[in-house]
Hints:
Layout: E1 6-11, H1 15-19, E2 26-31, E3 53-56, H2 58-63, E4 70-73, H3 76-81, E5 89-93, H4 97-100, H5 106-123, E6 126-129, H6 132-138, E7 161-167, H7 180-187, E8 192-195, H8 210-219, E9 220-224, H9 237-244, E10 249-251, E11 265-267, H10 271-283, H11 285-302, H12 305-323
Parallel strand pairs: 1-2, 1-4, 2-3, 4-5, 5-6, 7-8, 7-9, 9-10, 10-11
Amino acid sequence: MSQSPWRLLTLNCHEAWVHQLHALPCQLDIIDGLPGRYTPQWDSRIRPLPANARLLTLQQALTEGRAYHCIIAHSMTDLLDVKSLPWPRILVLHNTLEGRLQGQEQSSAEQVRAVLRQYVRLTGTHVIAVTAMKGRSWGFTKDIVACGVDVAAYPAWSGELACGIRVANQIHPKRTLLNWQFHEEAFADLPVRLVGHNPEFPGVAPADNWDHLKSLLQSHRFYIHTADQQQEDGYNMAVLEAMAAGLPVLGNRHHSSPIIDGVSGYLSDDPQELAQRARELLADRELALRMGAAARRTVQEKFSLQRFATRLQQAINSARGNKGRASTS
């Protein structure tokens, strides 16, 4: 008799990240309808609900009595919401602490780190980070589980539109984190399409769904990502998607960027220089094609969905081992 697949429990916070869990041999319960999000339920414009998943409320998760192989949380609030459940748990660090505490004193950051360290020790929570930079920010560097992208899920790049594209949500409160002033200086006079939930920008809207987003990436000439060196990485999930779709990426120089300047995109801290590089790509589709192909190979080699699934399964095994060693002091 074949063994039943794992059942994992997670909380809906990052649809694109959670959607990756379809690559694991598991059944997936996703707690939905949580407060503090710009959409009250799973946002199907970002990703469809995984085929192996069902949505449920927090109350259902707490009272149905299901056994879970592991719980995957995305914040301290998540951990507190499910604290009564006895199952092994993982905390995923999606952001830098500096980005979360913009403008606050460094002492506040140290206090937050200390509280988190104590809580995960007492509860046996295993902590992973989506990038090395984010792990260092919080003081958890041992387990980095990078996001994964299936390049086969993206249609072949066409690039017929001489226009750049960027995907970003809620830009206004993230202007410093996203180095938005640099973005504006470099691309103000160039055709660029902005996609995402940004009510402060007239005419800007999210993609209708994942297929629509793929078609937008397929047809545009290059992708843009800018980020503050201290608060955010030189890439995110949207950048990896754009690379998988065959787009070269333009942005400021960043120690964690997967882009090789002049090979898979262009990086510069001079907005005028970056604008000139963008004009070259707008004028030369074949150049964009070659650079985008290099970007796509980078994703295949370093950010495969299978690598993500393998690393996360290893992290789940660590979480299950930690649970028996949780401190009771």
